[in-house]
Write a sequence for this structure.
């Protein structure tokens, strides 16, 4: 299996891309937010600038859905990933216990 190489963000509006990266940096710096927790989660696996591009891409999806009117924005909070991890562990413990019993 070959290592996946980073392709960058080549296409699209340069000014919009720059603005979204700036927005992503601002979102990451806000305390007790989902975006900060997501950044911390991603930085464990990739460099900070790549993580910011990933967050900017995710922000674009959120912004699009809010503008389109299909969803309303709800802040998950900084504990989102911790709660998700605990739910996953509880689910596996229950599955293990039921298979043993």
């Amino acid at each position: 299996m070959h290592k996946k190489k980073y392709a960058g963000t080549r296409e699209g509006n340069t000014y919009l891309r720059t603005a979204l990266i700036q927005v992503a940096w601002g979102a990451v710096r806000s305390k007790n937010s989902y975006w900060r927790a997501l950044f911390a989660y991603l930085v464990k696996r990739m460099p900070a600038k790549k993580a910011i591009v990933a967050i900017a891409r995710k922000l674009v999806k959120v912004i699009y859905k809010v503008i389109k009117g299909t969803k309303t924005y709800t802040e998950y909070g900084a504990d989102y990933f911790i709660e998700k991890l605990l739910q996953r562990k509880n689910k596996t413990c229950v599955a293990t216990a039921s298979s043993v019993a």
Notes: The chain has four helices and no strands. The helical segments are 14-29, 34-43, 48-68, 80-100. The chain has one domain: 14-100.
